[in-house]
Amino acid sequence: MCSPDPIVRELVGIRADTPWTVILYNDDVHTFDEVILQLVKATGCAVEEAGKIALNAHAAGRAAAYSGTFDECFRVNGVLREIQLVTEIEG
Taking the mean position of all CA atoms in its chain, how far away is CA 80? Predict the structure, then answer.
């Protein structure tokens, strides 16, 4: 996945390397298996960890799926959205 466009990079500025978090929201469209597999694909985490994230999103309505630099979160967010999971990046 490509890096964010220059306008996004400018808005982010020096905060690009500070901790950012990808938030995964619960939805009624995807199965747990679909979410878990996409989390593993996006983050490289173990299936067990992805299951915990999916369960947290289901129970609380949202869960932290990944934390890292803005560029890392941008990439992870893009992979999660490949199957139309509802996400956002918080920083």
Answer: 6
User: What backbone torsions phi and psi does residue 22 show, to the nearest 5 degrees?
Assistant: -90, 125
Strand-strand pairing, 62-68 and 20-25: antiparallel
Residues 6 or more apart in contact with residue 87 via CB below 8 angstroms? 22, 23, 24, 25, 65, 77, 80, 81
- 1 contacts: CB under 8 Å, gap ≥ 6: 74, 75, 78, 79
- Angle in degrees, CA 52, 26, 31, rounded to 5: 75
Q: What are phi and psi of 7, to 5 degrees?
A: -65, -45
Per-residue pLDDT of the chain (91 residues; tens, 9 = 90+): 455 666 565 655 556 667 999 999 999 999 999 999 999 999 999 999 999 999 999 999 999 999 999 999 999 999 999 999 999 999 9
